């Protein structure tokens, strides 16, 4: 395979023909002659010139552009793509060499993950024209998010100044920077070696420190359509819809919420008990946000807790508690809380009905061998908060989870509940995390927040068992399920908590399905048999995406909640009958999927979607102070190609960019053979 | 219409018509056509009844064309330069909005 390509790359045919004609006609005729050579070659060999000139690099993640009310973040290339000469940066001395290079050309640094941080990138940008950055592989280093994620304290002078907490001291804020060049992360070893070899073969300076053409270069295409901010973009979406197509789309998807039992009666004040988690994560690279500790640990724990409660309910081991229990999964929380700021409650619920709100955020690790309960210092009823915490500690003790209370004067860490407390400070909001103060997870909102990384961290905390994460989350799921039931039954009747226990097999299956392989047994069970074939053997990306295309993670969460907390209707055997009939309570939803024995079954339950698109886009208030205005740019194609670039003096007499592209292509045919 | 075969009177009428009002309709193309058609009769052919009038209309067409072209070019340059900073108005006036920032 490799040798065959090598032959094409060094096409003898082209070299011989071209060098002779070149000799006769001289430089001025090169373009025309080159086209002739191209035509001859196409006819004779049936291979495209594109393949001869360019080497495609296909295994990469890329950085795209997002906008909000003020600015844009992320990356974009120029329309005609960016071209730069490769320069390997594996150490600080390499970086200095690049900074002091005498050649005035555009560079593309090939950086190791360790050196790829904001300081180094800024240093290189200040010294050189950077046409793009390629990161080689991925092993370690830093969080992309800024140091203090925004929340309810934005307008609070006290917490904005002296009491301001740097939750994420590892954060570089790179995620929120705007770059006018593409940043790609190449991850396959083959492609990494190809880039390195090309650099070593062509771009090493001579003993005098000079570079000799042709040089190994890359062309990076990552052109983003969106203008400078969301307001302009949404305006142009309409103004240019006929001739220019769309420029950007609002971020968003759907929230999933469900209740353990149908909620028929009107709710009393402060009666509802909510357990919530977020479904999405972000990183600097598009659709590459493993978010294992960030969001997966929380929503998988919550799913596992729902499974425990649903199983106990359906086997009639539970008496229906006095108060209703609700599960909520919010989407788009990473982008200034899209899901929780939108949450459309059903008509019979207002914020006044919410008593306790338990949120799980970053619960995969531990800090000082404990998990930490955070309350907002200025909201909630003191006695209700204390009872809430006491119930959690009691359940935790029973399940083997240490839970401590974070310092009273700390504000809440970033959490969805902040959006509800902003509107109604009467409810008791508890955020359960794995950090006492600063984040334990050094990879908050970064593509390094992977399953392996969390496992490594756990083993460094003394948990060497390979199942440590699923064991930890299972214990926590038991804790959460029992806490909810305790709160809901209000100790009357005194609940028998031992009947509610989370299942470790289920937790590890959920981890496997969401983080490694979506075509797992559990996911197959909760989709219809035609959809089961479409499940990929990799993890579904958990970035929220745009509202036009439904997020599969949301869908699967909805189906799983139905599977866990709903009832199978044994007498329904046809998909067309799997819907509410008139005599039924219309509050139910129905789903048709394969089920435990893969026989296609009908499930009925109280599981719902609610839209998770920021209210700013409903109100058309793209300068909104209160709501998220994040939108994702559209783009057409993203590509990375490696080629040899000839001496610029051969290119200078062609001024137009467009012609130069083709001219370069021609020159390169010649140089390929050199 | 073959101008060679029309009467002088008719030529004057057509020329006047093409200067005003038709000339204002397809700025500045009708004026340019007017100049091309009648330049010969206004300046190079032997004098005839109404030639002075045709000359007047051709010159007016030429002046109109030049003024219009200057205005058009100035507008175009200003529009292209300021389209971004005009905000919503700039976008509404654009037929094709370029992609990117």
Write a structural description.
- The complex is a heterodimer of chains A (674) and B (101).
- In chain A, 34% of the residues lie in helices and 17% in strands.
- By secondary structure, chain A is an alpha/beta fold.
- Chain A has 2 domains: 50-248 and 634-654, no CATH class; 252-566 and 606-613, Aminopeptidase.
- Chain A has an 8-stranded mixed β-sheet. Chain A has an 8-stranded mixed β-sheet with strand order 17-16-18-15-13-14-12-22, sandwiched between helices.
- Chain B has 101 residues and is an all-alpha fold.
- Chain B has 5 helices and no strands.
- Chain B starts with 7 loop residues before the first helix and ends in an 8-residue tail after the last helix.
- Chain A binds chain B through residues 72, 76, 79, 223-228, 232, 235-236, 239-240, 243-244, 247, and chain B through 87-88, 91-92, 94-101.
Topology:
The complex is a heterodimer of chains A (674) and B (101).
Chain A: H1 2-9, H2 12-25, H3 30-45, H4 49-53, E1 55-57, E2 60-62, E3 65-67, E4 72-75, E5 82-89, H5 92-100, E6 107-111, H6 118-127, E7 133-136, H7 157-160, E8 178-179, E9 183-186, H8 189-202, E10 215-221, H9 230-239, E11 248-250, E12 252-259, E13 272-278, H10 292-314, E14 325-330, H11 338-342, E15 354-360, E16 371-375, H12 382-399, E17 403-405, H13 417-423, E18 428-433, H14 451-460, H15 468-489, H16 504-515, H17 521-525, H18 529-532, H19 552-565, E19 567-568, E20 589-593, E21 601-605, E22 607-613, H20 615-618, E23 631-633, E24 639-645, H21 657-672
Parallel strand pairs in A: 4-8, 5-6, 6-7, 7-9, 13-14, 13-15, 15-18, 16-17
Antiparallel strand pairs in A: 1-24, 2-9, 3-4, 3-23, 5-10, 10-24, 11-23, 12-14, 12-22, 16-18, 19-21, 20-21
Helix pairs in contact in A: 2-3, 2-21, 3-21, 5-6, 10-15, 10-16, 10-19, 12-15, 15-16
Chain B: H1 8-19, H2 22-25, H3 29-44, H4 51-82, H5 88-93
Helix pairs in contact in B: 1-3, 1-4, 3-4
């Amino acid at each position: 395979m490799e040798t065959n390509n090598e032959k094409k790359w060094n096409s003898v045919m082209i070299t011989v023909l071209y060098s002779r004609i070149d000799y006769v006609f001289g430089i001025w005729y090169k373009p025309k002659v080159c086209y002739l050579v191209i035509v001859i070659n196409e006819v004779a060999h049936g291979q495209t010139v594109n393949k001869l000139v360019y080497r495609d690099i296909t295994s990469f993640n890329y950085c795209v552009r997002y906008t909000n009310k003020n600015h844009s973040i992320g990356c974009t290339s120029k329309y005609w793509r960016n071209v730069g000469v490769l320069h390997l940066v594996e150490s600080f001395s390499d970086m200095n060499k690049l900074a002091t290079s005498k050649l005035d050309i555009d560079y593309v640094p090939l950086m190791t993950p360790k050196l790829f941080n904001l300081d180094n990138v800024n240093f290189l940008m200040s010294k050189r024209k950077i046409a793009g950055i390629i990161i080689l592989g991925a092993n370690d280093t830093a969080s992309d998010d800024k140091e203090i994620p925004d929340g309810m304290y934005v307008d609070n002078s006290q917490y904005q100044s002296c009491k301001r907490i740097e939750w994420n001291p590892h954060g570089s804020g790179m995620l929120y920077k705007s770059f006018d060049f593409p940043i790609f992360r190449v991850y396959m070893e083959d492609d990494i070696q190809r880039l390195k070899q090309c650099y070593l073969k062509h771009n090493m300076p001579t003993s005098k420190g000079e570079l000799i053409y042709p040089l190994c270069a890359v062309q990076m295409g990552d052109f983003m359509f969106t203008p400078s901010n969301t307001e302009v973009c949404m305006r142009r979406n309409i103004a240019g819809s006929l001739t220019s197509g769309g420029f950007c789309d609002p971020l968003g998807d759907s929230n999933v919420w469900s209740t353990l039992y149908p909620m028929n009666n009107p709710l009393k004040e402060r009666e509802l008990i909510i357990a919530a988690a977020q479904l999405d994560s972000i990183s600097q690279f598009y659709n590459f946000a493993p978010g294992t500790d960030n969001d997966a640990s929380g929503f998988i724990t919550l799913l596992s807790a729902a499974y425990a409660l649903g199983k106990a309910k359906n086997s009639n081991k539970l008496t229906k508690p006095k108060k209703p229990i609700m599960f909520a999964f919010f989407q788009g929380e990473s982008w200034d809380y899209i899901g929780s700021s939108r949450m459309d409650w059903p008509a019979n619920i207002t914020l006044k009905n919410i008593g306790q709100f338990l949120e799980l955020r970053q619960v995969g690790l531990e800090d000082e061998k404990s998990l930490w309960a955070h309350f907002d210092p200025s909201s909630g009823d003191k006695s209700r908060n204390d009872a809430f915490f006491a119930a959690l500690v009691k359940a935790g003790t029973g399940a083997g989870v240490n839970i401590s209370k974070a310092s009273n004067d700390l504000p809440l860490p970033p959490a969805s509940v902040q959006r509800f407390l902003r509107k109604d400070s009467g409810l008791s909001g508890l955020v359960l995390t794995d950090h006492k103060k600063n984040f334990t997870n050094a990879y908050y909102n970064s593509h390094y927040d992977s399953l392996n990384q969390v496992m490594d961290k756990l083993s460094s905390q003394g948990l060497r068992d390979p199942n440590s994460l699923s064991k930890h989350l299972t214990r926590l799921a038991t804790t959460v399920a029992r806490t909810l039931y305790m709160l809901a039954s209000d100790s009357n009747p005194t609940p028998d908590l031992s009947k509610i226990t989370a299942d470790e097999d289920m937790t590890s299956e959920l981890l496997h399905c969401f983080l490694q392989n979506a075509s797992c047994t559990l996911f197959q069970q909760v989709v219809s048999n035609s959809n089961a074939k479409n499940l990929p053997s990799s993890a579904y990306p958990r970035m929220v995406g745009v509202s036009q295309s439904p997020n599969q993670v949301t869908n699967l969460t909805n189906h799983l909640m139905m599977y866990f907390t709903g009832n199978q209707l044994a007498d329904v055997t046809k998909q067309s009958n799997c819907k509410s009939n008139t005599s039924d309570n219309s509050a139910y939803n129905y789903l048709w999927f394969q089920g435990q024995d893969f026989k296609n079954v009908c499930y009925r339950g109280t599981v719902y979607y609610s839209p998770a698109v920021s209210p700013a886009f409903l109100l058309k208030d793209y300068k909104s102070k209160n709501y998220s205005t994040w939108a994702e740019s559209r783009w057409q194609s993203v590509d990375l190609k490696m080629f040899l670039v000839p001496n610029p003096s051969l290119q200078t007499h062609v001024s137009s960019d467009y012609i130069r592209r083709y001219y370069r292509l021609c020159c390169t045919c010649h140089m390929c053979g050199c | 219409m073959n101008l060679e075969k029309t009467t002088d009177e008719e030529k004057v009428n057509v020329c006047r018509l093409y200067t005003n009002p038709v000339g204002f309709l397809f700025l500045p193309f009708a004026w340019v056509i007017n100049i091309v058609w009648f330049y010969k009769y206004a300046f190079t052919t032997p004098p005839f009844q109404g030639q002075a009038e045709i000359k007047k209309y051709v010159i007016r067409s030429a002046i109109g064309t030049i003024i219009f072209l200057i205005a058009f070019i100035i507008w175009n340059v200003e529009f292209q330069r300021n389209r971004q900073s005009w905000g919503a108005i700039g976008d509404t006036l654009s037929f094709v909005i370029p992609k990117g920032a």
